[in-house]
Each structure stands twice: as structure tokens, then as C-alpha cells.
């Protein structure tokens, strides 16, 4: 069959097993691809406008509600931006506890994506539900890993979704030594073996990831000392490092009619953020065990297959477990000090832009405060917003690739859905996404 | 016995309440033995329309939301509003006191005409809601209680007293004594004073307590020398639509 004869129309309304509402639309006429994009149909949220006039004490509470799945990341980024704008110091202990919380949230999100959202495609079933019967041990293990991640967030942040102990300057309540010891023991005795079993499982499924590659720009935070999650400069595999204050020169947001989520581009027509963005920029900083997982999964930068973002998430899951164990040993050696949250010496005007690596990629919050400590201007740039153009660009190359592979329309539809899921998009966040539509 | 068919839908929200259910790790498999899950876009690929019980998360904020919720109401025998956005409008309603055109301009600039938005409302502002699970996020324990009540044909019980009652029972120190404005005195209990017990002020996510004792609330404000203006923003955080209704009543 010659490509020039092919007319194809695929429409997947409301793609499932992703966070938020999106439709995939493919329209190919006589071999020419007219449309190939992800429509984001999530209702707009308007957070940047909503928080105007709110006090610095309340901002993180509201911006947390951008996304329940990424609420730890949103609160963290929000607090850091507020602290930078108003000159609120934070203690070393606060930074360590915040890192632990981010690692717990990253474990939770990655495990949810790998096992509940992505694995059903690799095992050829529509959801995790039939897996409970066909693969009960895997499902029980996944639930155990997720529960432990959530318990970590509960013990540090007060609760997993929209934590209620995080305020500018620190924590309103601190975990006990017993809590920290429990987390350390559970990570070492339960999570490490479960992560090992997950690796063995993923190795048997790795051949089911489509072998599609596309060269692009990968973007992530990079820290001089460690594989960055909490802090760093903005790194690009194309252009090197820039400071977070210059984030707008990276994100370049623009509006497209088919998406309530804005799009981003930098050195090329799009860039990629998320686990692969981080792995491709910070591979040299992976901990020993995580590096071993990457080697066994055959991941070596630059990884150009977007479907392997899911595999990169497992590498990161292991990395954050190792990193958490280091911090826990450190905190347990020094003991938890009873610190009250720091307050600003004097509230005065200021602007602060900050970034954090949340599970789906680099997240920016930027606030300008007046002299009463109330927000006058805000900007939040979400990982999925930055990835939407990359998904569209992937689809444009994936459709001819799939035709070349001789795939049926059903296989193509599933592969397109798998592509969108591989990005682990967070559509609530991005408007703030998924249905496939093939138009014929 | 055939299992009742259950569906979950999300309108305008952060999907935190949907995610909460995936966090019921210990009970998830048991719940799936009691109900047949026919539609839950975030977790499964099936999308059947023959559901009997519909859980709706999120507020109504676009013409499309209105259409969807009417369709859900036509099918569902029982409709449950899940979480603050669906129950009371939640944080989405903060923008209702602003000019919608200015809000759209702020976020989308010249492209504001691409995406229609209406006033952010609770589900019960548009269709009849049978039961609700309050909170942001909803509490999984309460969700399980409401689900068990529905499955056994009972009316779910949601507390109708203030958060302060639970906070006192937990012997927390009052945050007002530390100069913090807390929404506990006016907010519906049932969270076991989750936020004040973590040293954080209550922000009213469970909605205003029914039959609010306004005089007692005024006494608290007087004692701590707070003006309505000072607590207004915090009141608006989750309860914008309540404030709007009260202001109309006072006019």
C-alpha cells in the first residue's frame, strides 16, 4: 500500500487513563496529514486571575487546587516562589523534609502511572481491574507501593492530597522521630524489594513499547550537587543552562485554538519535560541502584523514544527511594528540631519565580506581591502545558511510522493513546486531556 | 445479587477526589466486589452509559458542563456530588466576584474568545443532587460511609455542627489565640478538624454549617477584633457562592 492512497480519520474522544480531558484527532487525506493533535477540552480554570488580592499566607492553599494529583509539587513551588519574593528564609531541616515529601509524591505518581495507567496497555487489557484477577500479585504489589508512598506524604505533609502542614517558612507540624524511622524501615524493607520485582516485570514487557524515536529538545532542572527535583537551573539538551529567573525565555507560551492548555516551544518547534527530560539531562547524577535499573532497561542518554518515559519513571522511583534513605539517615542522626515556620521580617513588594521538578516535569510559579503581601500578578506554567506541542509533534511523525509498520486502525488508535499516556499528562493542571479521534 | 452499576464523572476540578478513590488501596478490591464500575475515565477504558449511581466531581463552569450534568442526571437514579467543587462550587467560584471578561483576558489575552466560561457553580445549582460528600479533598472514610449507606438503602449522615466541636474534642489549642483567622467556627464538621489538628487554619472547604449561629460567629470576630473585611478573602476561598447569596439577602 502506498502512503499516497491512505485516508485516515481517527477520533478518540476523552482519552481514558489520563488525568483530565483530551481528545486525539487524526485526519489524513490521500497520504497527506491534515490534522494530528491532542485537543485539550478541560474547562479553563483561571487560577492566575483568582489569586489576585490574596495574602501570601493563602496562595499555596489555592494554587494547590490546580491539581489534586500534583498538589505536593504545586504547594512546594508556590511556597518557594512566595519565600523568594518576600525574602522568607527556610531552615536546612525544612529543605530536607520538603525533599522527602517531593520524593514521596514522585514515588506515588510514578507507581500510579506505571502500574495503573500504562501497564494495562502493555498487558493488552483495558484497565487495572482485570489485572486484579489475572495478575493478583502484581496488583497487590502496586497497591502496596502506592500506599507506602501515600503514607510517607501523610506523615510529612499531614495528608497526601492537598497537604495541610506546609506554609511559607516551614511546617506547621513536624514528623516525629518514630515517623521518620518507620518510613526508613518501610522503604528499606518493603519498597526496595518491590521496586526490584517491578524492574523484573518491566523487563519482560519492555519489548512491547513501540520502537518509535524522534529527536527533540529535553528540558529539566539541573542542580550542581544532585539529580534535581527541589532546586536547580533550567537545563536543555540543546542549549545548556539558564537561571530559573529567565524561565519565560524557555517556556514561550502560546495559545492554539484546539486546546485550553497553552503550548510551549524553545529551541525547536517543541520540547519534552518529565522523567525522560530529567534522565536525559541528569543521567550522570543517578544513584547506584537507579543507574543499574537504567542499564538493565537499556536506557542511555539521549533516549529519544517518548514511550520509554514510563521506563524512566521506574528508574526515578528507585533513585528517589535511595535519596530518601540518605536524607532519613541524616535526619535521624541529627534528630528533628522543633522549628516554627519562619515569618517575613517585614512585608514589602517583591517578585519571585521558582521551579520544581514535579513527577510530570518542570513546574514554574511566579508571583508579584504588593507591600501588603497580596498577589498583584501571577503566572503558573505547568509541565503538561510544555508537553502538549511535543505530543502533537510526535503524532505527526508517529502516524506515518505506524502506517509504515502496517498497523491496523485499531492498533494505531491504541498506539496513539499509549503515546499520550506515556507523557503521563496532567490535563487538570495544564488548563489547565484524552480521547482519540481519527477523521475519515 | 447483581452489583449496582456505578460511574464517576469529573467536571471542572483538580481530580483530587477521583484520585482519592485510587488511594483507597486497602479497600479498592473489596469495593469492586460490591459495585460494578462502568465509567471512570481516569482509571478504566470502559465507558458505559447504563449506570445507576453517578458520582460527580467538580463544579459547573462551562456550557459543556451544564450539558454533561443534565445527561448524567437523566440516567442516574442516584446522583452524589463529590468534594467541595461539586458540593459548594469550591475554589473555582473565587472568580465569580470578578468580571469574567477581565479574568479571561488575564489568562488567555487576545485569545480569550476561544474558550466559553460561565459562572462557576455547585452541581446542585443546576440539577437535583441526592447526596453529597463534602471537603477538599473529600475524605475517603466519609466517602466509604456514604457509599455503604447508599448500597444498604439508607440516607447518608453528614455532620451538621461546626469544626470547632471536633477541634475542642481533640484538645487542640485555638488558633485564634495565636492570631490566626480560622474558619472552624462557621464550617461544617466531619473532617475531625483535620487542618487545625495539623497546626493549620481551617479554610472552610466543607462548606458553611447549616443553620449557622451568626451571632456566635460575630462574637468570635469581636473578641479577636476582626472585621468582616479581614476575613472576607478567606471566606471567599471555598464559599464564594454562599457569600454572594448572603449579600443578596442583606440587600
Structural class of chain B: alpha/beta
User: What is the CATH architecture descriptor of the largest domain in chain A?
Assistant: Orthogonal Bundle
Helix content of chain B: 25-40%
**Strand count of chain A:** 13
- Taking all residues together, what is the mean pLDDT of chain A? 90
Estimate the mean pLDDT confidence of chain B.
Answer: 89
Structural class by secondary-structure content of chain A: alpha+beta
Proportion of residues in extended strands of chain B: 5-15%
Strand content of chain A: 15-25%
Shape of chain A: globular
For the termini of chain B, the CA-CA separation is 55 Å
Q: How is the largest sheet of chain B built, in terms of strand order?
A: 2-1-3-4-5
Determine and state the CATH class of the largest domain in chain A.
Answer: Mainly Alpha
Helical residue percent of chain A? 40-55%
What is the makeup of the main sheet of chain B? 5 strands, parallel
CATH superfamily of the largest domain in chain A: Cytochrome-c3 Hydrogenase, chain B
Question: What's the shape of chain B?
Answer: globular
Query: pLDDT below 50 for ≥5 consecutive residues: which ranges of chain B?
Result: none
Rg over C-alpha atoms of chain B, rounded to the nearest angstrom = 19 Å
